[in-house]
Give the backbone structure.
Amino acid sequence: MVYDVAIIGGGVIGCTIARELMRYSIRAVLLEKESEVGFGTSKANSGIIHGGHHGSPKTLKGKLEWLGNQMWDTICDELGFGFKRIGELTVALTEDQLPTLDQLKQQGEEKGVPGLEMWDQERLLREEPRLNPDAIAGLYAPTTGVINPYEACFALIENACLNGLELVTDSLVQDIDQTDDIWTIKTNRGEFPTRFIINAAGLWADRIAQMAGVQPFTIRPRKGEEYILDKRLMGLVKRVIFPCPTPVSKGILVIPTYDGTIMVGPTAEMVDDKEDLTTTVAGGQTVFQMVRQVVPGISPRDCIAEFAGLRAVTETEDFIIGPTDKKGFINVAGIQSPGLTAAPAIAEMVGDILRDEGLPLQPKDDFVPSIPKPIHFVSLSTDEQIALTQDNHHYGRIVCRCELITEGEILDSIHRGARTIDGIKFRTRAGMGRCQGGFCTGRCMELLSQELDQPLSQITKRGGDTWIVREREEVAK
């Protein structure tokens, strides 16, 4: 079978494109080298839907930022993942930073972003009393939101598959050939002939383009270290707190995540290794030194977890989206911040490009826009919890004590596609609490083993060779 479209890359961009294209009567496949979608840059994303005013309207990413921002409410309503508009403040600590706030406000107003307000010191500290009392002003943007990016990936791909997408994970692209109008993608899971290729391979998009023989570009990773704080700090700030940005970074932020946990970061360090996900002493020191200038009450002693992500940066610092000199090969590359925010707008743009390149996109009459929304036991009322456990005893067994995640939620995540410990973790939050999986990992492994009919020694943290236990070797007597 020849596919109409093959998408390479299962991050939030690839997943959003996949769902958008499955509105139409086409044959499509998504190839992802990891064991589950969202396991690359997307899982380490800060989870911010930017307000729409940060990017210059002269850049592609600046244009798509506000367009994408406006689309997330509908997507969340349809797919049921965590998303909330909590607003943001960009804070000036000195007089020389005030022109930057004015510029951001002007940029946003030029793009039509509503509700932007300049707050003086009195208003700033009344609304966010934990800010540095020396802060002199702040730009308030009510349109900023927070999201669980990995939940979004899972929901988007589940809906795309419900509508006919073929998903192939653990599929590493090894070579790409073109014969006449047909491309052949060669992977460790077989060959996939297709009329069109969407190169949404993130950090590896330059390598994929090179395989296809299209005009070259270079992706360099920009590493960002993030630090998760104990839940006892929930409510320390109500909004996302930005410092005044620099030319290469929006700065080190204080982020109240959708689930209430405070996250601080990221750093912005250019690296050469596309698999360097290490956190460093220096990175941690930088993050906490910077955020304490804005929110002095934050302490590194409150850190319960740390991780790093890599942004895919091109020479131009802008998105690369469009057809190439090889008919049928379309780049969607260099999608760094605000890529998550812009993702729905990028997906619509890709659809327009495919039409212009000659692919008929006939809307489906039977497109299903929603999926069954997962149960979050802890958010239910006591009466609802009692009724649920009487109906299904699995919801009466707590697996993760820190986050109060039930066995029923774990089983549902497996039935929806979780194949690894991280797959469960990112769908349910089991393992995200203070003990970081010390209590619940064993039971999650048992449930994966039971439901997937695999021995415990084949259960991994995130796929590949990330085994957690090994078969015991017999010792010769």
